[in-house]
Amino acid sequence: MSSSTSSLLAFATGFVMSIGLSTGANAQSLPLSARDSDPNVMGWMQGFPPPPDKLIEQPDANYFSFPKLRWSVCHLREFLPTEEISRGTGAPIPLDYLPPAEFADMRQAIDALTFTPQQSDTPMTWEESLYANYTDGMLILHKGRVVYERYFGCLEEDGKHAIMSMTKSFTGLLAEIMVVEGDLNDTLLVRDIIPEIGDSAFATATIRQVMDMTTGVQYSEDYSDPNADIWLYSAAASPLPKPADYVGPNGYWEYLQQVAPDGNHGDEFHYKTINSDMLGWIISRVSGRSVTELASERLWRRMGIEQDAYQTVDGKGVPFAGGGITAGLRDLGRLGQLMLNEGVLNGERLFPADVVQNIRAGGDRAKFGTGFPTMGAASYTSQWWVFHNAHGAFAARGVHGQTIYVDPTAEMVLVRFASFPQAQNGFIDPTSLPAYQAVAEFLLSRQPEAQN
After folding, report:
1. Where are the beta strands (DSSP E) in 222-377?
2. Using omega within 30 degrees of 0 as the cis cutoff, is the peptide bond preceding 448 cis?
3. For 319, which DSSP code?
4. Which of 265, 412, 254 minimizes the C-alpha distance to 337?
5. pLDDT of 129-188, one tens digit each?
6. Residue 112 CA to chain centroid, in angstroms?
7. Which CATH class is domain 96-167+322-445?
8. What is the pTM of this model?
9. Environment class of residue 241 by beta-carbon count within 10 Å: exposed (0-12), middle (13-18) or buried (19+)?
10. In the chain, what are the domain boundaries?
11. Nearest-angstrom CA–CA distance, 328 and 78
12. What is the C-alpha to C-alpha distance for residues 132 and 306, in angstroms, rounded to an integer?
């Protein structure tokens, strides 16, 4: 095997880890607690230069293996090329906080809240759950005011964190805005907008089926098979020069052009990242903007954002619409508040209320299946997860614990960054979802704040 081919395969392995897909190494029992695996305790990349055993490098391809991932989630731009989601040059609009003394009391009260995890009889406190889930950052807004904010591990208040598949919800939100505003017809077939899709299985899917991930497309993630689709996809996405003997697709969009069918479009929900990249191509073609430019124009420049965000790209500069964004905690709180307010933030309407109302209504639960037992009778639409619980909660979710959780009944927005050793959120939902509900009920139980 040539050294260039080895480098590409190393990158592919790193890419799989960077989008949070579980590998054998990630699926092992957890060797270190959250406190013991804190990157400051581990000493990763400390010193000038760091000791050899404390280096985290690319293209060694293990930068997203535990416990290194607990440092890497805050430093993704040091491993992969990115494109900016600009906030523009205007001054940020500060978030509203509780008065300092009340804020301190609120943190103490929330930390002490107890709940019972799913499939357990042993109560747990909110603070215990933060460490159990390897939390890097937690922000809670209630009625538009920050009532709780904490940082751990690699993350500080001016830092940024990889948001993994919450990126999909950015892509889906932009698509839903275009649908509601009449710029995108979700009944059209993919080939009507992207004729280059050719004979790909995506060609005959509707835009709505792509948005809701009910396409019948082949995409396997069998890590024991070196020819599985995930390896071909990640090799195609590599921004490294392709070796001379490489014969696969180059970039996300070339990969999408050769996807084979698997089942019928519209029959079932299947969570497959390639749908998000197909959607990114569609909205870019229709809008004449890359997904980073569109996110900047429609969201980031208009939200009073504090920090630019960044999105990884393939070798042709195409942004990874399925999982490539790195952003700040408070800025995602602003996005959650925008969703809670049905398109209004800082007194300005950014998009029609129907956008959020359509997402909150959810997808077809009969198509959701049984692959996500910790979520109950949920659904998926426009790349957002809808819980259909008593509070009408919905969420953006990314592996290793990334969450924007919106509870309209409690008027609560919760944002969590995390670096849980195992990728799948099913491992941490049992201690996360009941914790979110406990905070929501606590906030609902509080007396209305005194009017000034």
Report:
1. 309-312, 325-327, 344-345, 348-349
2. no
3. B
4. 412
5. 999 999 999 999 999 999 999 999 999 999 999 999 999 999 999 999 999 999 999 999
6. 28
7. alpha beta
8. 0.94
9. exposed
10. 3-75, 96-167+322-445
11. 16
12. 29
